[in-house]
Specification:
455 residues, Amidase signature (AS) enzymes, 11 strands
Length: 455
């Protein structure tokens, strides 16, 4: 590795930085993988983000990536860059357990499609990240690296905490209500959820089929854009993959300030200190040239959340009710309650929820008619205690309607020393525009440090 690349410790490199250094032959993929394995040995006992590492295969893949640098082989955009995957993503010859004891010996024969596509782009799977059980709300063992008595969020708890603690530059998560953006906000990292149907879910264990999204945890908007370019696209073997989707083509850096719609209902739902923070962020953007206007979801937030909850209850019940009987006592309390509640709901309630869902999608879309993106708090407050994974109220609307959304770290609340975050969302299939607005905003927000104990 050259002297110029030692300014940043290897474990602190972003995915984009690592990819550029590897491509320019300034960084060895083997050196990077070994540095991250050393980092895991040093700090993961405190964070507990890794469900399991796969060091032998990762080092072998890194050696192959290093050899390819000397050949005339075409290099993928993430050549030699390590990544983690939430432990609901199938991984070939590596246990995928979803934090479910009966699955502790479950070894898939093939990678989930998102993992396969990222590997095809040259990336290296370092291991599996802790998830709450089947990606629901029962807290996991992972700790918040900013404050041990606060939740890291869920369900992508290991992915978010691992990226924050510099254990891995990028990780897959999933979001059914708020399970990518909320843990990203609580851990001070970037979390991104694409349009529903943009990324294949083949090989990803489901919670609720029509709500589940593959998502990303990273430390920059550029990293999310880089990874989406590698994994987006129609998969004919996934019934939830949209064959009509336009190709994702990343735009260059945005040069004009965005038009942002400040969501009234989200501000009203937030605590006073979060509301004050987001209004301050909006004022900063406005001073930098952004147009800020107040907009509405067009429907009561209580209705939006009720429709999302009914949909999740019924679909989760369809996925899990047989397993409740097959493995009595193995499901954790909140997941079991969700499934049992879903079994009691009549079909007419589910169908009515889907009619309302179409109306809500139209209403939220109308709020985006004259703006580039919506701006709102990511969560109603900073990370609460470890007895919960947090409040999904402000992330769930975009999971319900399938619109892309992204959360950006926006500061640290003092004296608690906990991360703050803002969220942007836009119309379906406009991820390039969302990344443009997000990168413009990111450049005008304070740089987010590593958690003090893990810098």
């Amino acid at each position: 590795m050259t002297e110029s690349s030692t300014a940043t410790a290897l474990h602190a490199l972003s995915a984009s930085e690592a990819a550029a250094l590897i491509r320019s032959r300034q960084l060895s993929p083997v050196e990077l993988v070994e540095a991250l394995l050393t980092r895991a040995a040093a700090v993961d006992a405190k964070v507990q983000a890794w469900a399991r590492l796969d060091p032998d295969r990762a080092v072998a893949a890194a050696r192959a990536a290093e050899a390819a640098l000397s050949s005339k082989s075409e290099l993928g955009p993430l050549h030699g860059v390590p990544f983690g995957a939430k432990d609901i993503f199938d991984s070939a010859d590596l246990v995928t357990s979803a934090s479910f004891a009966p699955y502790n010996s479950r070894v898939p024969s093939a990678d989930a499609q998102p993992i396969a596509r990222l590997k095809a782009a040259g990336a290296i799977l370092l291991g599996k990240m802790v998830t709450t059980q089947f990606a629901y709300a029962d807290p996991s063992r992972t700790r918040n690296p900013w404050h041990d008595d606060r939740t890291p969020g869920g369900s992508s708890s290991g992915s978010a905490a691992g990226v924050a603690a510099r254990l891995i530059p990028i990780a897959f998560g999933s979001q059914t209500a708020g399970s990518v953006l909320r843990p990203a906000a609580y851990n001070g990292v970037v979390g991104f959820k694409p349009t529903y149907g943009r990324v294949s879910k083949r090989g990803v264990l489901p919670l609720a089929w029509s709500l589940d999204h593959v998502g990303l945890l990273a430390r920059s908007v550029a990293d999310c854009q880089l990874v989406l370019g590698a994994i987006a696209g129609y998969d004919p073997s996934d019934p939830h993959s949209d064959p009509t989707q336009p190709p994702f083509v990343a735009d260059g850096p945005r040069t004009t300030p965005p038009r942002l719609g400040l969501v009234r209902e989200a501000l009203e739902q937030s605590t006073a200190r979060l509301r004050e923070h987001v209004l301050g962020v909006a004022a900063r953007f406005e001073q930098a040239g952004a147009t800020i206007r107040e907009v509405s979801f067009g429907e009561p937030l209580e209705l939006i959340l009720a429709v999302q909850q009914v949909t999740m209850q019924v679909e989760a019940s369809a996925v899990h009710w047989q397993m409740l009987e097959q493995f009595p006592g193995a499901h954790q309390p909140r997941l079991r309650a969700l499934v049992e509640a879903g079994r009691l709901l009549p079909g007419v309630s589910y169908l009515h929820a889907q009619r309302l869902r179409r109306r809500i999608r139209h209403s939220i879309g109308e709020g985006l008619r004259d703006v580039d993106a919506l701006l709102l708090p990511t969560a109603v407050d900073v990370a609460p205690g470890r007895e919960t994974t947090g409040d999904t109220s402000l992330q769930a609307p975009f999971s319900l309607v399938g619109f892309p959304s992204i959360t950006l770290p926006s500061g640290v609340l003092q004296p608690e020393g906990l991360p703050l975050a803002v969220q942007l969302a836009c119309l379906p299939w406009r991820e390039a525009e969302l990344f443009g607005a997000a990168s413009w905003c990111e450049a005008r927000l304070p740089a987010m440090p590593a958690p003090p104990a893990f810098a």
